[in-house]
Design goal:
Length: about 150
């Protein structure tokens, strides 16, 4: 099946609503790890299967280059939670870039996870097909709707 969409992990939302896990979306530390087309991301997996280097998110499926886009991902910066319009809560960060000499291929999406809270996944983002860069800067441009968005 492989990548088909972006989504927030359902278990993350359940954890937030039951106080089973406390996430601070603007002050905890988060990373984006890049992945090839091997994973079949699902928003409905149990919490343990959202964790970096577990289940589909193992390093064998990860795309990285030492010194350019680290194994384990690149830290997200300028995190913010906003309410841009009625009924919408949005989580965003500055665009996330590699070093200037990256060679990355077969990148389909990323896992965004919390390094402060046992590497639990927040969401996965599909890039719409295969992407990459040869000897340049690879940048994840977060959409205007943010890394994740909730309709309330």
């Amino acid at each position: 099946m492989a990548w088909a969409a972006s989504n927030v992990f359902r278990q993350m939302m359940a954890d937030l609503l039951t106080a089973a896990q406390v996430y601070d979306l603007d002050t905890d530390a988060y990373k984006a790890a890049l992945y090839n087309n091997t994973p079949t991301p699902s928003k409905d997996v149990v919490a343990a299967n959202t964790v970096y280097n577990v289940d589909q998110w193992v390093t064998a499926n990860e795309v990285f280059q030492a010194g350019q886009w680290a194994q384990g991902g690149v830290a997200l910066a300028s995190l913010s939670v906003t309410t841009p319009s009625s009924g919408i809560v949005q989580w965003n960060a500055a665009n996330t870039a590699s070093g200037g000499a990256a060679t990355l291929a077969n990148v389909y999406g990323c896992l965004v996870y919390n390094t402060t809270r046992a590497s639990k996944g927040i969401c996965f983002n599909y890039f719409g097909g295969t992407t990459g860069v040869a000897s340049g800067t690879y940048t994840v441009v977060w959409p205007g709707t943010g890394i994740a968005q909730w309709l309330v």
